[in-house]
Specification:
about 325 residues; mainly alpha
Length: about 325
């Protein structure tokens, strides 16, 4: 039996390592998957075997670049914004269980905590856009805010449906209540969750806040060096968090052969498959227009999420 302080330290170190390694793994996978889908080889030199250390080399490059703060920027807000965008995903990752016993910070209402802290991340984008004293940055921040308002509702409704089906707000409880027929029963909600998660991450085809052909690079236009790298890390950490959350909510998490010993590995593998789908969507779909983005959220996703919630309620009443 470990002392409490030592257990806390070990859990914190494990979560921090996962936070630094898993986004790099997703980023390297994105480089290679995108390259092969476009008929290229992708990174081949950094580190030797298939350029496995390309993102490490990119990180070293960012560290060496000059950290520039625009003369007319709100300096404190400008410098604090990358941390505000990044830290919420670290907190969310700590609360997502890989198995009943492998979790950084077990929380009874884990699904509420994860959704709450994920919503904080966009404040970093708003701070960056407002503090940069750049019209393109401000436009990108406003687009990010509109996107968050539109897609937060269907995301929460989709998750509420799963919590209602499981009868608990605990992520461990939801995964343990999961059964294979949820793949059909909760399918509409799963689609809504995946689309809304893409929009929350501002990933293609929902990357209007960063649309380089329209507003340069949106809220992060003025950022350089390590602070710009923090925004990139937040994006890939967001993919990891949403992919693992999808695996726990809709794919049974650690359910699989030998789950008593390999449950954590099943959760990671399912999350990795979801991350590859996110990458595939980036390469396959063109960017939507702002009006198309809003129409998709309010005309399609919100009604589908409400339908899923009603369908779940009927199912729960009939089986109780």
């Amino acid at each position: 039996m470990l002392p409490t302080w030592l257990e806390v330290v070990l859990r914190a170190v494990a979560v921090l390592l996962a936070f630094l390694v898993l986004p790099l793994l997703v980023g390297q996978t994105e480089h290679k998957v995108m390259a092969h889908m476009q008929g290229r080889l992708g990174p081949m030199y950094a580190g030797g075997f298939h350029g496995w250390a390309q993102l490490v080399a990119d990180g070293v490059k960012f560290v060496q670049k000059e950290d520039i703060t625009p003369a007319r920027a709100d300096r404190w807000v400008f410098r604090l914004a990358p941390a505000v965008a990044l830290v919420p995903y670290l907190v969310a990752l700590a609360a997502i269980p890989l198995s009943p016993s492998v979790v950084g910070a077990p929380v009874d209402a884990g699904v509420v905590l994860v959704l709450a802290v994920i919503g904080v991340g966009v404040i970093g984008t708003l701070m960056a856009g407002w503090a940069s004293a750049n019209k393109y940055s401000l436009l990108g921040a406003m687009r990010a805010a509109a996107q968050l308002v539109s897609y937060e509702l269907p995301l929460v409704l989709a998750v509420a449906s799963v919590a209602l089906a499981a009868g608990t707000l605990s992520l461990v409880g939801i995964a343990e209540a999961w059964s294979p027929w949820w793949l059909l029963w909760q399918l509409p909600g799963a689609v809504v969750f995946l689309v809304a998660a893409l929009a929350e991450l501002q990933r293609p085809p929902f990357d209007m806040p960063l649309a380089d052909s329209e507003i340069v690079f949106g809220a992060v236009t003025e950022y350089t060096g390590l602070r710009f790298a923090f925004f990139l890390l937040a994006e890939y950490a967001g993919i990891v968090v949403f992919s693992l959350l999808f695996a726990v909510l809709y794919l049974g998490g650690w359910a699989g052969p030998l789950e008593s010993w390999l449950g954590w590995l099943w959760t990671l593998l399912k999350g990795f498959v979801v991350a590859v789908v996110v990458i595939w969507l980036r390469v396959s779909w063109p960017r939507l227009r702002e009006d198309q983005l809003q129409r998709l959220a309010w005309v399609w996703l919100v009604p589908i999420a409400l339908f899923q919630l009603a369908l779940t309620a009927v199912g729960v009443v009939m089986t109780s």
